C-alpha cells in the first residue's frame, strides 16, 4: 500500500531504546513507509507503513509511533499541527499491537475461550451427570451419608430416635424392591431410610440409596391407616424411584461440576458440592420419570397408586397449584394428579401398629 | 550502573492527563463486554484499561506506555487453569467424602485456603514482573529482578510470623515484601531502592490491631463460656435443646455485644489510617537512583472515593433488583447475580481515575537526576502474563 509521498520533513523526537536520551529526528513520508532520520545519523531508518503502530497517548501530548519488529524504539511528534499532518498522511495507522495478524490470532483464541466455556458448561451439566450415574453405589455411600446429614441440617431438623417408625419404612422399602436385581449402580440392599424431625413435609433421595424422610410429611396427610398410609408409601416409592434411576448420583455430578467451575472462576472458593446438592432439585423430567416408576413399583407390590394421587391432592390443598411454569423444579401438581391411574391395590402399605408408630413420629414414645 | 545523579537537572515532573468522562465511558464499555461474554473478555478489558491509564501518566512530559496484549493474559490464564483444575477437582472430591469427623473435615476445608496462601505470592510476583516488563517510557522498559522463589520464601516466612502472633507482626510482612518488590524494580538500568523500617509502622498498626484483638478475645470468651455451659447442660439432660445465650445474663450480653461493635468500627477506621500511613511511609522510603519521593494523599479523599464506589455498587444492585422484579419474580436472582458481577467489574476501573489522579498530583519528587543517561536494562521479558493472578483474582486490573 502506498500514500502520496510528501518530502516536507516533520520534526520529531526519536528514542532508540538503548538509552533514554531523546534524539531530534526528521520524518519524511515516502511511498511505502516513513523515513526516520535522527540528527547526525549517517543512514535513515525505514519504517514500513504495514509495520507502523500508533501508541496510545493523551491528545495534548501529541503523536507516538512504534514499529512492529522494533520493540523498544519510539518516535514522538509533539507539535499539534505536525502530528495532524502526519496522521492525515498515514490513513491506515493502527493502534499499537493491533496488526491484522495479531487481531486474527486474538480473535481465534477469544472465540476458543467462548467455545471452551460452553464446553465446560456442557460437561458440567450433561457429561458429568451421565458419567457419575455409573459410579458404583458403594463408592458414593459415604457421600450420601454426608449429604443426608447436610439436608437434615439445612431443613432445620434433628435426628429422630424412632426405631419402630424407621423399621416400618424399611419394611415398605423391602416390599417395593422385592424383585429388583442389584446392579453396580443400584443395590436394593443399600437403600436406607432415615427419619428426620422437621416441620417441612418433604422427603429427599441422596446418593448411595440414602433416603431422608421429614416428619412433617406425616402432618400433611390425615390419620387413616390405609388411605393415608398408602399416601406416605407413594412418597417413599417416589424417592426410591429416584435412587433406582440414579438421579442422586447424576445430580452429584452436576454439583461437582458447578463446584469446580465456581472454584476456577472465583479463585479457589467453591461451594461444597454436598451442600450444593442439598439445595439442587432434580428437574421436571426427572420428577416425571420418578413418578412413573413409583407408580409401577406400587402397583407391582399390590399397594396401588391411589395413595400417591391422594398425596398430591393433599399437597394441592395445602400449597396451591404449584405451577411455576418453565422455571419450576417440579411438574405442576395438577399434572401429577392427572398422570395417576388411581389404582387401589389389594394390599395396604402399613399395618395398624406400623402406622401408629409413623404418626407418633419423633415424639418420645409413650 | 548509571551516573544519573552526578550531572543532572531538577527532578522530573509527573502529570496525570486522564478525564473522568473518558475513564467512565471506557469502564462501562469494557464492563459490559466482560459481562456479556461471561468474563472471557476480561483479559482484553484489563489490557484496554491499562493502556488508557498508563498513557495518562506523563513523566517529564513523555507518557508511559503499556504494551501488553489481552492474548498474553488469556494464555497465561489457560496455563494456570490447566494446572489448577486437577487440584481443585481433587479438593472438591475430597470434600464430598469429608465426614463429620472434625479433624478430616477441617483439614479438607483448610486445604484450598492453604493452597491459596501458598500460591498467591507466586501470582503477585509474576504479575508484577509481567506488568513492569510491559511498561515503556522513552523506549526503556521496566523489569523486576529477584526471583519467584526469593519472594515466595519471604512471603511464607513473614506471613507465618503474622499468623503465629495473631496478626501483631503483620506490618513486618508488609515492609519486607514490599521492600523486596520495590528494591528489585528496575527501570532501564536505573534501580529503585527501599529502606522502610518495620518499627515505623508499629504504632499505627497497634492502634488498629488492639481493638480488633480485644473484640476477638471477647468473642472467643463468649464462645468458650457458651460451649462450656452447653457441654455441662447437655451432660445433665441429653434430650434438651440448648440455646447459646442461655448461660448469659441478657443485660451483660447486650452491653458486651455493643462494646464489641464499637471496637470493630474503631479497628476498621484505624486500619484505613494504617494503610494510609503505610503508603506515606513507603513513599518516603522509596528512591530511584538519586531521586526521593513523598506523597501527600489525604485520608478523606480516599475514603470519599470508596464511599462513592459503594454507592455505585449499591445502586447497580438495586437497579438489577428492580429490573428483575419488573419482569418476573423468578428471574430476580439471576438479575441480581448479573448485577453483582457488573458492579464488581465496574468498580475497579472507576476507582482508578480519582485515586490515580490524586496520587500523581500529590506526589513530590526530590533530588537531582539526569534521565537521559538511563540505558536499557537486561531484565527478563515473560512471554505470557499473570495466569495465576487471573485464577486467584489477585488484582482488580
Please provide a brief summary of the model:
The complex is a heterodimer of chains A (366) and B (397). With 366 residues, chain A is α+β, with helices and mostly antiparallel strands. Chain A has 12 helices and 12 strands.
Please render the helix and strand layout as text.
The complex is a heterodimer of chains A (366) and B (397).
Chain A: E1 6-15, E2 23-29, E3 33-38, E4 45-48, E5 52-54, E6 63-67, E7 70-77, H1 80-89, E8 94-95, H2 100-132, H3 137-154, E9 158-159, H4 163-176, E10 192-197, E11 203-205, E12 210-214, H5 216-220, H6 227-244, H7 247-266, H8 273-279, H9 284-300, H10 306-319, H11 333-339, H12 352-360
Helix pairs in contact in A: 2-7, 3-8, 4-6, 4-12, 6-9, 6-10, 7-8, 10-11
Chain B: E1 14-16, H1 20-36, H2 42-55, E2 57-59, E3 62-63, E4 65-66, H3 70-97, H4 102-133, E5 135-137, E6 140-144, H5 148-164, H6 170-183, E7 185-187, E8 190-194, H7 199-236, H8 250-285, E9 286-288, E10 291-295, H9 299-327, H10 332-361, E11 363-366, H11 387-391
Antiparallel strand pairs in B: 1-2, 2-3, 4-5, 5-6, 6-7, 7-8, 8-9, 9-10, 10-11
Q: How would you portray this structure in words?
A:
Chain A has 366 residues and is α+β, with helices and mostly antiparallel strands. In chain A, 47% of the residues lie in helices and 17% in strands. Chain A contains twelve helices and twelve strands. Chain A has an eight-stranded mixed sheet, covered by helices on one side. A four-stranded mixed sheet of chain A has the order 9-10-12-11, with helices on both faces. In chain A, helix 2 (100-132) packs antiparallel against helix 7 (247-266). Chain A is rod-shaped and about 110 Å long. The N and C termini of chain A lie far apart (98 Å). Chain B is α+β, with helices and mostly antiparallel strands and 397 residues long. In chain B, the strands form two sheets. In chain B, strands 4-5-6-7-8-9-10-11 form an eight-stranded antiparallel sheet. In chain B, strand 9 and strand 10 (291-295) form a beta hairpin. In chain B, helix 7 runs antiparallel to helix 8.
Amino acid at each position: 500500500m502506498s500514500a502520496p509521498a510528501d518530502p516536507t520533513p516533520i520534526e520529531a523526537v526519536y528514542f532508540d531504546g538503548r538509552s533514554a536520551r531523546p534524539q531530534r529526528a526528521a520524518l519524511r513520508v515516502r511511498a511505502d513507509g516513513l523515513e526516520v532520520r535522527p540528527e547526525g545519523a549517517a543512514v535513515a531508518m525505514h519504517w514500513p507503513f504495514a509495520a507502523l503502530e500508533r501508541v496510545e497517548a493523551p491528545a495534548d501530548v501529541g503523536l507516538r509511533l512504534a514499529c512492529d519488529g522494533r520493540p523498544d524504539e519510539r518516535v514522538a511528534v509533539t507539535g499539534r499541527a505536525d502530528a495532524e499532518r502526519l496522521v492525515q498522511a498515514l490513513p491506515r495507522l493502527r493502534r499499537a499491537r493491533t496488526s491484522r495478524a495479531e487481531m486474527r490470532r486474538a480473535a481465534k483464541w477469544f472465540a476458543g475461550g467462548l467455545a471452551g466455556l460452553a464446553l465446560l458448561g456442557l460437561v458440567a451439566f450433561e457429561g458429568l451427570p451421565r458419567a457419575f450415574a455409573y459410579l458404583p453405589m458403594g463408592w458414593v455411600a459415604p457421600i450420601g451419608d454426608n449429604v443426608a446429614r447436610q439436608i437434615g441440617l439445612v431443613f432445620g431438623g434433628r435426628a429422630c430416635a424412632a426405631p419402630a417408625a424407621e423399621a416400618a419404612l424399611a419394611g415398605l422399602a423391602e416390599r417395593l424392591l422385592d424383585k429388583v436385581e442389584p446392579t453396580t449402580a443400584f443395590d436394593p440392599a443399600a437403600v436406607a431410610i432415615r427419619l428426620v424431625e422437621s416441620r417441612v413435609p418433604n422427603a429427599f433421595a441422596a446418593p448411595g440409596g440414602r433416603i431422608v424422610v421429614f416428619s412433617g410429611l406425616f402432618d400433611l396427610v390425615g390419620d387413616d391407616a390405609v388411605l393415608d398410609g398408602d399416601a406416605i408409601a407413594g412418597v417413599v416409592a417416589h424417592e426410591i424411584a429416584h435412587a433406582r434411576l440414579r438421579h442422586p448420583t447424576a445430580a452429584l455430578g452436576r454439583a461437582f461440576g458447578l463446584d469446580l467451575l465456581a472454584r476456577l472462576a472465583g479463585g479457589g472458593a467453591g461451594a461444597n458440592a454436598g451442600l450444593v446438592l442439598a439445595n439442587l432439585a432434580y428437574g421436571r423430567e426427572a420428577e416425571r420419570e420418578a413418578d412413573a416408576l413409583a407408580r409401577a413399583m406400587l402397583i407391582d407390590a399390590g399397594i396401588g397408586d391411589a395413595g400417591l394421587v391422594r398425596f398430591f391432592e393433599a399437597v394441592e390443598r395445602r400449597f396451591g397449584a404449584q405451577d411455576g411454569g418453565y422455571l419450576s423444579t417440579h411438574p405442576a401438581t395438577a399434572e401429577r394428579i392427572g398422570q395417576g391411574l388411581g389404582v387401589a391395590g389389594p394390599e395396604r402399605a402399613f399395618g395398624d401398629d406400623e402406622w401408629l408408630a409413623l404418626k407418633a413420629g419423633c415424639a418420645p414414645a409413650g | 550502573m548509571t551516573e544519573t545523579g552526578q550531572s543532572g537537572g531538577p527532578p522530573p515532573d509527573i502529570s496525570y492527563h486522564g478525564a473522568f468522562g473518558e475513564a467512565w465511558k471506557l469502564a462501562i464499555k469494557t464492563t459490559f463486554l466482560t459481562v456479556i461474554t461471561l468474563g472471557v473478555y476480561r483479559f482484553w478489558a484489563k489490557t484496554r484499561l491499562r493502556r488508557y491509564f498508563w498513557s495518562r501518566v506523563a513523566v517529564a512530559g513523555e507518557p508511559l506506555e503499556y504494551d501488553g496484549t489481552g492474548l498474553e493474559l488469556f494464555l497465561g490464564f489457560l496455563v494456570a487453569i490447566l494446572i489448577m483444575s486437577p487440584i481443585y477437582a481433587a479438593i472438591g472430591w475430597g470434600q464430598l467424602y469429608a465426614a463429620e469427623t472434625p479433624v478430616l473435615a477441617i483439614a479438607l476445608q483448610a486445604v484450598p485456603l492453604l493452597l491459596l496462601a501458598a500460591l498467591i505470592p507466586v501470582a503477585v510476583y509474576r504479575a508484577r514482573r509481567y506488568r513492569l516488563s510491559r511498561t515503556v517510557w522513552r523506549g526503556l522498559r521496566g523489569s523486576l529482578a529477584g526471583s519467584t522463589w526469593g519472594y515466595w520464601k519471604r512471603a511464607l516466612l513473614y506471613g507465618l510470623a503474622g499468623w503465629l502472633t495473631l496478626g501483631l507482626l503483620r506490618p513486618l510482612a508488609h515492609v519486607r515484601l514490599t521492600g523486596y518488590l520495590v528494591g528489585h524494580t528496575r527501570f532501564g538500568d536505573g534501580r529503585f531502592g527501599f529502606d522502610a523500617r518495620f518499627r515505623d509502622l508499629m504504632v499505627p498498626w497497634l492502634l488498629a490491631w488492639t481493638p480488633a484483638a480485644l473484640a476477638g478475645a471477647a468473642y472467643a470468651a463468649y464462645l468458650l463460656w457458651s460451649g462450656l455451659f452447653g457441654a455441662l447442660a447437655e451432660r445433665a439432660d441429653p434430650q434438651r435443646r440448648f440455646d447459646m445465650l442461655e448461660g448469659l445474663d441478657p443485660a451483660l450480653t447486650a452491653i458486651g455485644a455493643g462494646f464489641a461493635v464499637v471496637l470493630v468500627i474503631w479497628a476498621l477506621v484505624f486500619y484505613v489510617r494504617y494503610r494510609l500511613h503505610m503508603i506515606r511511609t513507603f513513599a518516603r522510603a522509596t528512591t530511584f537512583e538519586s531521586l526521593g519521593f513523598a506523597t501527600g494523599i489525604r485520608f478523606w479523599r480516599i475514603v470519599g472515593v470508596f464511599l462513592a464506589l459503594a454507592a455505585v455498587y449499591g445502586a447497580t444492585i438495586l437497579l438489577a433488583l428492580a429490573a428483575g422484579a419488573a419482569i418476573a419474580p423468578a428471574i430476580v436472582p439471576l438479575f441480581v447475580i448479573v448485577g453483582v458481577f457488573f458492579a464488581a467489574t465496574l468498580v475497579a476501573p472507576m476507582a482508578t481515575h480519582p485515586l490515580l489522579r490524586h496520587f500523581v498530583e500529590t506526589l513530590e519528587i526530590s533530588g537531582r537526576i539526569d534521565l537521559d543517561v538511563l540505558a536499557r536494562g537486561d531484565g527478563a521479558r515473560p512471554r505470557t502474563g499473570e495466569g495465576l493472578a487471573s485464577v486467584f483474582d489477585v488484582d482488580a486490573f
